[in-house]
């Protein structure tokens, strides 16, 4: 089974490899793909669209059994607060399955900057005096005190979207 993940971000690749786990003969290739959405997706719909676009485009890169797309964004979730959200999509070229990772509320200081048009990754680097948060622990790692890091969160989302392709649970 050849799997393409629509990103060269090492955390997204590692999360996909972890979700694929011990599937017999499974390999994961990183494929640079444009999400087709804003650099900082806003809202659940745009974040899901970015994940789906990445999955389809990765699959279409050629010769893959499955394409995986992962997208992080921000959304209000029915409140005035802004939350970090993450979605994964998996496609076999015929259907696209989606699943979400955990969501956490962003602090007001971060929310203000993101609402002013800044991208979350650079805001996190600046606000928390770090470098490469988006390629490491992620905002989720900072906001959970390291209990959940970005790879853990994204692995869960990919595993959820992968489920219908690797279990008989959805054969109804």
UniProtKB/TrEMBL annotation:
Binds 1 divalent metal cation per subunit; can use either Mg(2+) or Mn(2+). Its EC number is 3.6.1.73. The keyword Ribonucleoprotein does not apply. GO terms for molecular function: ITPase activity; metal ion binding; nucleotide binding. Keywords: Hydrolase, Magnesium, Manganese, Metal-binding, Nucleotide metabolism, Nucleotide-binding. This is Probable inosine/xanthosine triphosphatase. GO terms for biological process: nucleotide metabolic process; thiamine metabolic process. Homodimer. Its cofactor is Mn(2+); Mg(2+). Residues 6-166 form the Non-canonical purine NTP phosphatase/PRRC1 domain. Phosphatase that hydrolyzes non-canonical purine nucleotides such as XTP and ITP to their respective diphosphate derivatives. Probably excludes non-canonical purines from DNA/RNA precursor pool, thus preventing their incorporation into DNA/RNA and avoiding chromosomal lesions. It is an enzyme of class 3 (hydrolase). HAMAP family: Non_canon_purine_NTPase_YjjX. Mg(2+) binds at residue 34.
């Amino acid at each position: 089974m050849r799997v393409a993940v629509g990103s060269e971000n090492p955390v997204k690749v590692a999360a996909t490899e972890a979700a694929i786990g011990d599937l017999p003969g499974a390999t994961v290739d990183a494929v640079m793909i444009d999400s087709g959405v804003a650099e900082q997706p806003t809202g659940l719909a745009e974040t899901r669209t970015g994940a789906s676009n990445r999955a389809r485009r990765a699959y279409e890169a050629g010769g893959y059994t499955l394409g995986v797309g992962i997208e992080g964004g921000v959304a209000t979730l029915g409140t005035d607060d802004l939350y970090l959200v993450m979605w994964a999509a998996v496609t076999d070229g015929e259907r696209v399955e989606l699943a979400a990772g955990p969501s956490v509320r962003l602090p007001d200081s971060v929310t203000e900057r993101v609402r002013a048009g800044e991208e979350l990754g650079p805001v996190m680097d600046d606000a928390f005096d770090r470098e490469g948060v988006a390629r490491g622990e992620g905002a989720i790692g900072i906001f959970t005190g390291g209990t959940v890091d970005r790879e853990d969160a994204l692995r869960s989302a990919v595993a959820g979207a992968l489920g219908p392709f690797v279990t008989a649970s959805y054969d109804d």
